[in-house]
Specification:
alpha+beta, 141 residues, 5 helices, globular
């Protein structure tokens, strides 16, 4: 048992401490930048768990105390042919400094059958005719 405790401290404690330290230095700009940098690393056909692994799935606490979910929000939409799409929205842009994250500051990542179909507003509107912003959620802190 003693060996297990020592092994835990040696292997896990630095990871826990590092994880806590890095989140306290993160800014919303860091979140946007990271999400923008990760998008081109995605490839159509990736499985959902790979996409989530690449893009992230955490609630991030920034150094100013703001919290942001990654993905920011998600929704499920059906097209006119009955095809179901899961859309993950990631915070990637800053269009207005107003402490509100609006839909136009998000990038949609589109999945169908747990497989990446692509990302971006043009693709979303192409896949789902007459797509309207179903989630007009805005967050402020």
């Amino acid at each position: 048992m003693k060996n297990f405790v020592v092994l835990f401290k040696v292997l896990c404690l630095p990871l826990i401490i590092n994880g806590c330290a890095s989140s306290s230095n993160t800014t919303l700009d860091d979140v946007r930048t990271s999400n923008r940098e990760n998008l081109p690393k995605l490839t159509v056909g990736m499985k959902k768990n790979q996409v989530l692994g690449m893009m992230g799935t955490k609630t991030i606490v920034t150094k100013d105390g703001s919290k942001i979910n990654n993905p920011y929000t998600s929704e499920t939409v059906m097209d006119s042919d009955g095809q179901v799409y899961e859309i993950l929205f990631y915070y990637t842009n800053l269009n207005s400094i107003d402490d509100v994250i609006s839909q136009d500051e998000l990038t949609p990542v589109i999945l169908t059958n747990d497989t990446l179909a692509g990302w971006g507003w043009n693709l979303l509107k192409e896949k789902i005719e007459n797509y309207t912003e179903q989630t007009s959620k805005k967050a402020s802190w």
